[in-house]
Write a structure and sequence with these properties.
mainly alpha, 2 helices, single chain
Length: about 60
């Protein structure tokens, strides 16, 4: 797709209806919205398996 793969819908040079850019940007949002893999593992361990919480840094 090259540089034309990053064009939004309705551009006269777009490819695949602008889907490549949309899916790329959407996937970044999913990563941010879902949290990192380590955070998700901590949530599963604490809530699902009942393991103790990790100690907080800084003693608070």
């Amino acid at each position: 797709m090259g540089e034309l793969g990053t064009l939004y819908h309705h551009s006269k040079y777009e490819r695949a209806g602008g889907a490549w850019l949309f899916h790329y940007m959407f996937s970044i949002g999913l990563i941010i919205g879902g949290g990192t893999a380590q955070i998700q593992k901590n949530i599963i361990a604490e809530r699902g398996l009942g393991l103790p919480r990790e100690p907080r840094v800084g003693g608070r």
